[in-house]
Each structure stands twice: as structure tokens, then as C-alpha cells.
Amino acid sequence: MSIIPTPTTTLAVDDINLASFDFWMRDDVDGALAKLRRERPVAWHQHADSGKGFWSLTRCVDVAAATRAGNCASRRRRT
Q: Which residues on neighbouring strands pair with residue 56, listed in sequence order?
């Protein structure tokens, strides 16, 4: 049985921005996502051009909890 190594990244956790198109072109996306899961599983990501952003949940347990909680912002109706 082989051991799968944990992916790594050179990015600091504050430099990981899922709203950046450039982020998704990097070779170390898996490592960056692993770092987010470890160090900041719930994180805000803001798009540099629009100023708009979103929260990301990178751990399965957090996603499951958010979908069970009826008060998630994404489930609210916008007026």
C-alpha cells in the first residue's frame, strides 16, 4: 500500500484567494486547499476588481453543518 503525500504550497494562508482567477492556474492548488482546511477552514475571499466576495467552507464537516443550519446567507432571499 502506498502513502499519498499531503499536497503543499508556498502560499501563506492570507495569500490564498479563491476569488482570484490566477489562483486556479497555479500548480499548487491542492496544497493551498489543504492549507485552508488545516489553518482556516472557513475563510472570506474577495474579488480584487469588484470588491465582492464569498465565504468558503473547505472541510466536509463544516459544509454539512452549514447545509443543516437553516439560516445560511446564501439561502436568504435577496430583495
A: 43
Give dist(CA 14, CA 12) in Å, integer. Answer: 5
Q: How does pLDDT run across 30-64, given as a tens digit for each residue?
A: 999 999 999 999 999 999 889 899 999 999 898 88
pTM (two decimals) = 0.76
pLDDT value at residue 7 = 84
Strands (E) across 6-59 are located at: 42-46, 53-57
d(C-alpha 24, C-alpha 12), whole Å: 16
Q: Phi/psi of residue 73, each to 5°?
A: -60, -35
User: Phi and psi of 25, rounded to 5°?
Assistant: -90, -5
Per DSSP, which regions of the chain are E strands?
42-46, 53-57
- Measure the CA–CA gap between 5 and 30, rounded to whole angstroms: 11
